[in-house]
Structures are given as structure tokens and as C-alpha cells.
Specification:
Largest sheet: 8 strands, antiparallel
Strand content: over 45%
Shape: elongated
Distance between the termini: 49 Å
Radius of gyration: 31 Å
Strand order of the largest sheet: 32-33-34-35-42-39-38-37
Number of strands: 42
């Protein structure tokens, strides 16, 4: 079944113009370009990482989704601070429960075209007109976590060949293992290259053992260095103004050779030769300069870099329902605290709480956790999938200090004598291992109706619960932490709030590592002990409230 959704977009490239899903435009039956993009099943990718079009062209884009996950397609206006659209996509986390109804597409003048949700085994027809301003326009899937890999570029006005007066000659031989002496050969076809673009399409009908010569001119607006990338399967050669600049001859798979050439202002001539001996055939010629950016001489675009094996797609953990949190016991906090409990909250706010130190360890925004490492080869297990990571605390939650000069116990460890193949009496080597602290008793955690956890543990004669709630302060993401302490506290009992940051105080906020911290309900002290530490004095039954607020908006500037 095909689900058809159409977008009228004849004016969507004016920043102030809103977009609306509607019937196909009048020109829908006769667009300048018919393009199809597919999602790659199980790979969290589009099959087309780049589109190259001229300004002001009417486009019908069919987006097919053979995957078992829903996706969307959002085309974005240019933003020099977010060239690949990743920061914009992260804002979809903030939609929370509204996300599915909005197809996880935030309202923004930066959105030039949007598909809405594309269901399983369905497709969407999207109509738009390419922008008039040349540039590389990002397109992404903005469903939370998908933009890590599901993104690409619409290159507008960047594919017009710099060449002119380009001619081609095609040759057919019985056998070719290197570039031939073309002066001794007779071409089977000659002509003028369409749009002055170097293409091997006309010769592919000859299958193996064919060769091509292209000759033409190109203008250089100003004297500067050009870096040329010549790629081919099999051999090729580039000459400029009669001099060989790149020799990529021989039988080989797709191979890219690059060279920087200083070109003087004015007109230059070029000659490019190529042959195909057998097997696959590929050819690409690309150049780059400081003033002109990316320019292509060929219709293929693989020469910029050699093909690389794609990394395994991420396996992102997601909550069962919108508005719920997801809790994942994993190994995120470092070698001495393997019992890390990661929690992903609605709005793309995440943290890692350590059951070894009974304290908050890390916070971050955006994607939650990628667990693909557990399955992909010799993977390293779970890893953070988001950004703006801040190490808040590295150390046990509570400590009784004889003086403020006493160092804080960061982890509970012990040393074990060990040497392989020796009896216990003969062992002389020692290794350090993490062990439960005698003053602590971890009691687990409880989940509320939205699956938000509340951690519970004991310290000496105290019973403690530790809960976190996502929020916002002045439009910037924040975490509100409530630490409820009941029982009798020993004299000089302190709680460690943070030890990563300068902790300079302004208007009640302390500066941390990329965040601001506010503490309510206890007397705080900033002290020097292997760096600065923010600690709070605990005097018995207390409700300690700590707020962590990032310094800037997602994709925004510092406040």
C-alpha cells in the first residue's frame, strides 16, 4: 500500500513563509525532477546521502520506507552553526508527548519541506521547489535518535560543471589493461558532452574494454590552489594545460588519487582519459578551492574520498510510551564503578546514577543510549548516544569529615593479592578492585506511573531517597533533583554535590562543567581537595534540592 502525502512548497524557501500539507501543486504532473529516496531496512539510513539540483527546480520526491520502523524526512534551511541538521533534530526530544502528533517535526522557519510520518512499508510523495540560494541544505529524519545516521545533503547550484566546450571520444578494444595510445586508435563515437559534464554513461553499453577521452576548458576566477580528486575503476589520467597532474592508470577497483595544483586566473585546458578493462566501472573527477568550494566535473561524486565500510547502525533504547522514562543498567561511569544506572527522560534529558557511589555521575542531552556494542562483533557494550555530556560528580555521596582538609573518598576499593599459577602464599602482585562500602546499603529503586525511578539507599543511620525530574528554566533544559534524608546524621556529615567545575557563585548558581548548579535546603561549601568540590553539610532530616541547568539551549547560544 502507498500512503501519499503532498506538500505545496512553491514558496517555502522564504524564511518567513509557513508550510502546509495540502493537495499536490498544479505542476505536480510535470516536475523538473522525479526523485526517489529509500530508507535502508535495519540500517537507520537513507540510501541517498546527497542530492544535486539546480536552483528554482520543481521537484517530486518519493520517499519509500521498506523498513520496520517509522521515519520522516525534513529539509532544512542553511545554518552555519548546524550544517548537518543534527542540532535541529535533537530539538525533537523537547516535543515530549506532542511528538507523535507533530510527526516529531518541531515548528520552525528553518523547515523548508517535511514529509510527516512515513509508516512501515509505506511511501510519501513530497513536492517542493529548490531554493534560489546555492548551498548544501541538510535533510534529516527528526524522530528522536534517528538523525545520528539518517541525514544527507541537498546540494543546490553546486553541481554545475565548471567546464565548457567539452567533447568526448569513445573507443572500443579487444583487450585493455592500461590506458592506450589514443593517437593510434579510431573512436567509435564522438560528440559534445551534455551540459559539459564528464560521464561514462554512453560507453557502458560497450561493457568491458572501452576507453574515453574528454577535452575541454574551464575558467579560474582568481589565482589559488585547487585540490583535484580523480577516482576510477579501472585507470584514468588528468592533464591540465598539457601537463599530466594525476596518473591513476592500471587495473584496480575504485581508487582515488588527489593532488593540489596552483592555477592562475584565466582560462585553462584539460584532458581526461579513462579505460574500463573488466568488472565494475566507475569514474569521478572532483575539485575543491577556498573561494569556490566543491565543484564537480563528472556526474559521479565518489572521488572526494575512497569508499569506506559503514559502521554498524546504532541500536537506540527508547521508552515504551511517550512521556515515560527508560532505565537501563549498564557500564558508563568508569572502571571502578561498573554498576551504572542510566535513565532517559522525556525531552532528551538523560543521566547516569552510580549504584557504587550512590551518587549522580553524568548528565547529557539528546539521544539516550546505544546498545549496539553488545551485539556488533567485539563491541564495548552501551555508550551514550547524545551530546552535551557533563561529568557532575566522581565520588561517594556521603562522608564524615574530621576537617575540611580531609580528602573525599571517591570510590570504595580494596586490594587483592594475585599472580597467576601461584599459591596464595606465593602471590606478590596486587590488583585494585571495587567493593561495597561498609557504610552504605543500596536498596534499589522504584518506578512511578511514568517509570521515573526513585533511588533508595542507606548511609550509616540515614535513609536516603534520590529522585530526578526533567524541566526547563528560561527555555533551557534542566534537571531537578530531590534528595530526601531521614534519620540521625553524624557530626560533620557532608554530601558531595559536584567536583567538576570552577564552582564560582553568581545569583545563587554555581558554575559546573558546562552547567550551572543551584542548591537549596542545606549549607554549602566550596573547598579545594584534588580540585574544587561543592559539598553540603547534612544535619539530620533534610530535603535537599539540587538543580542542574545547561549553559545554553540546544543548538543555541549561551545565556
Amino acid at each position: 500500500m502507498r500512503l501519499k502525502t503532498s506538500l505545496v512548497a512553491t514558496a517555502i524557501f522564504v524564511a518567513t513563509t509557513s508550510i502546509a500539507l495540502a493537495e499536490p501543486p498544479e505542476w505536480s504532473g510535470n516536475p523538473d525532477h522525479n526523485i526517489t529516496i529509500k530508507t535502508l531496512p535495519g540500517m537507520m539510513r537513507f540510501d541517498t546521502p546527497t542530492l544535486d539540483l539546480e536552483p528554482g527546480k520543481k521537484v517530486k520526491l518519493v520517499i519509500e520506507n521498506p523498513d520496520d520502523l517509522e521515519h520522516n524526512f525534513v529539509l532544512l534551511d542553511l545554518d552555519p552553526d548546524d550544517k548537518d541538521g543534527a542540532k535541529f533534530a535533537e530539538t525533537s526530544f523537547k516535543l515530549g508527548e506532542k511528538g507523535p502528533a507533530m510527526a516529531w517535526t518541531p515548528d520552525s522557519p528553518r523547515v523548508l519541506a517535511k514529509s510527516g510520518m512515513i509508516g512501515l512499508k509505506q511511501s510519501v510523495d513530497l513536492y517542493f521547489v529548490t531554493p534560489k540560494k546555492p548551498g548544501a541544505y541538510a535533510y534529516v529524519c527528526t524522530i528522536p535518535g534517528h538523525a545520528l545516521l539518517m541525514r544527507g545533503k541537498l546540494n543546490v547550484g553546486m553541481m554545475k560543471s565548471p567546464a565548457k566546450e567539452v567533447t568526448y571520444s569513445i573507443y572500443k578494444e579487444k583487450s585493455l589493461s592500461k590506458l592506450p595510445d589514443f593517437s593510434k586508435l579510431t573512436p567509435v563515437e564522438t560528440g559534445k558532452a551534455k551540459n559539459d559534464i564528464l560521464s561514462i554513461a554512453k560507453a557502458k553499453k560497450l561493457k568491458d574494454n572501452f576507453a574515453i577521452v574528454w577535452e575541454g576548458k574551464f575558467d579560474v576566477p582568481k589565482t589559488e590552489n585547487y585540490e583535484f580528486f580523480l577516482g576510477s575503476d579501472d585507470g584514468s589520467r588528468l592533464s591540465i594545460d598539457g601537463e599530466v597532474e594525476i596518473d591513476n592508470d592500471g587495473i584496480h577497483p575504485m581508487k582515488v588519487v588527489k593532488k593540489k595544483v596552483k592555477l592562475e586566473k584565466g582560462e585553462h585546458t584539460f584532458r581526461v582519459t579513462y579505460f574500463e578493462g573488466g568488472g565494475g566501472e566507475e569514474f569521478s573527477l572532483y575539485a575543491n578551492s577556498k573561494s569556490r568550494g566543491e565543484i564537480y566535473f563528472s556526474d559521479e561524486k565518489t572521488a572526494k574520498a575512497a569508499k569506506k565500510k559503514l559502521p554498524p547502525p546504532p541500536m537506540l533504547l527508547k521508552p515504551l510510551k511517550p512521556g515515560e522514562a527508560i532505565t537501563h543498567r549498564t557500564f558508563l561511569g568508569g572502571g571502578t564503578q561498573p554498576r551504572s544506572i542510566a535513565v532517559g527522560y522525556p525531552g532528551g534529558i538523560n543521566l547516569a546514577w552510580s549504584a557504587d557511589t550512590m551518587n549522580l555521575n553524568l548528565i547529557w542531552r539528546g539521544g539516550f543510549v546505544d546498545v549496539g556494542g553488545h551485539w556488533n562483533g567485539r563491541g564495548s557494550g552501551s555508550k551514550i548516544a547524545g551530546f552535551d555530556q557533563s561529568k557532575v560528580v566522581e565520588g561517594m555521596a556521603f562522608q564524615v569529615l574530621e576537617s575540611l582538609d580531609e580528602p573525599w573518598v571517591k570510590f570504595s576499593t580494596d586490594k587483592l593479592a594475585y599472580e597467576r599459577d601461584k599459591t596464595p602464599e606465593e602471590q606478590v602482585n596486587e590488583i585494585e578492585i571495587g567493593v561495597p562500602h561498609a557504610d552504605y546499603d543500596f536498596k534499589g529503586y522504584r518506578l512511578d506511573k511514568n517509570r521515573f525511578p526513585t533511588f533508595s539507599y542507606g548511609f550509616q543511620k540515614l535513609d536516603i531517597t534520590d529522585r530526578f525530574d526533567p524541566g526547563e528554566i528560561d527555555g533551557i533544559e534542566a534537571i531537578h533533583r530531590t534528595i530526601s534524608i531521614k534519620g540521625t546524621a553524624g557530626e560533620n556529615t557532608y554530601f558531595l554535590i559536584g567536583n567538576s567545575g570552577a564552582f564560582e557563585e553568581k545569583d545563587g548558581w554555581y558554575s559546573g562543567e558546562g552547567i550551572q548548579i543551584k542548591v537549596e535546603g542545606a549549607e554549602t561549601t566550596v573547598r579545594e581537595s584534588e580540585g574544587k568540590e561543592l559539598i553540603a553539610l547534612i544535619k539530620g532530616d533534610t530535603e535537599l534540592k539540587v538543580t542542574y541547568r545547561w549553559n545554553e539551549k540546544i543548538g543555541g547560544k549561551a545565556q
